[in-house]
């Protein structure tokens, strides 16, 4: 009876076993997908009263504003505070330098 049960288990329909080449290709595809997921950088968009702006645009504008004052200083830390009701974004770079940028001049359309 045990032989009969194992014979039936072997005859069940299902997925065919992968060849070594298919396993390697599937493994490489999974590794690439995992690397992409690990490096995910979401696109964040702030919308307020009919206008919208991408966070990347604000970050670039804050860095540009910072570099007008501190040309050779590298940006190692950036905190961005978006205040849509004032149409402003305030930033702190490297923990010490504070500034602000207008949302009106950096709006994406």
Tell me the fraction of residues in β-strands, as a range: 15-25%
Distance between the termini: 73 Å
Radius of gyration using CA atoms only: 27 Å
Number of helices: 3
Mean pLDDT: 84
What's the total number of strands? Answer: 5
State the order of secondary-structure elements, H for helix, E for strand. Answer: HHEEHEEE
**Order of the strands making up the biggest sheet:** 3-4-5
Coarse structural class? alpha+beta
What are the key terms here?
109 residues; alpha+beta; three-stranded antiparallel beta sheet; two-stranded antiparallel sheet
Question: If you had to describe this structure to a student in words, what would you say it looks like?
Answer:
The chain has 109 residues and is α+β, with helices and mostly antiparallel strands. It has three helices and five strands; from the N terminus they run H-H-E-E-H-E-E-E. The longest helix has 19 residues, at 20-38. The relative contact order is 0.12.
